Amino acid sequence: EDFLNLIFKAMMKDSLNSSHSVSSAVQSSEQIEEMFDALSYIKGASLLLMLKHYLTKDVFQAGIEVYLHNHNYRTAQSDDLWDSMNEITNGTLDVKKMMKTWIVHKGFPLVTVVRKGKIISVQQEKFLYRVEPENWTSDASYLWHIPLTYITNRCNFTHCTSAYLLDQKSG
After folding, report:
1. N or C: more exposed end of the chain, with fewer CB within 10 A?
2. How far from 146 is each of 23, 129, 155, CA to CA, in Å?
3. Which GO cellular component term is one of those annotated (predicted)?
């Protein structure tokens, strides 16, 4: 419950146009200090949980083990973690490409799901809680690679979760 409260606080901050991305190039030590705030840590943790759920616990753990083995006693960058995950997925999913959309973009998407008969359509757009005129920038081109999981009525709710990667504005 405490973690959920932290996530919702971070999402509130991240839903403002004045938010910042989890990862970005820095030019000074002051910029480094600005980047390491609650938003970066909580959003980062949430993104790792999202990835773990999408890849499955075993695949995610194997990717972490490869990452720790390949980079023990050395410095690492975020791409190194995604590359380790790509090693484990054997090219079935470009984890780096997917996760870059989450760590480079500020904010998060609003996913709208519409059902018409047996047809389900999904659409994404950047979610903004409140527009701050002094910090306004157009983020209309933002596109996330959103891992969606779903269950149909053809299963007994055990091991029947299906997955879909929404990597377009709509699908």
Report:
1. N
2. 18, 20, 24
3. cytoplasm
